[in-house]
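Priority: low. Protein: Fluoride-specific ion channel FluC. Input follows.
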Amino acid sequence: MAASATVAIGGAIGAVGRYQLGRVFAQHADAGTALPWGTLAANVLGCLAMGVLFGWLARTGHTNETLRLLLGVGLLGGFTTFSAFGLEMMLLIQRGAAGLAVSYAAVSVLAGLGALYIGLLIMRGAA
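Result:
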């Protein structure tokens, strides 16, 4: 039960952070034609943070399960938004913007993986 509470606390913080990030981007976007920049930013930033977190955990030999659950599973799980990503992909396709949907998917995946790699490199070089 304590592990679930830890994940829930982290998830709540991450979800609120994701919501606020989306609001910031939505204030500056044309709703009819804009790419979902808030979701893209959350996914890339979340991947970067996950790379830094797990690079740090591996580098320092930390085995603190509470920290992993709070930050990795909870906070970053609540912040990153691949479920919202899937929905937005479908909405773009349904609106007849399949090309934009494919571009969005490619940028999300490639930038996210690149950011995760950079996060790992940051932690490996932080000797």
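Residues 2-125 form one domain. The mean pLDDT is 91.
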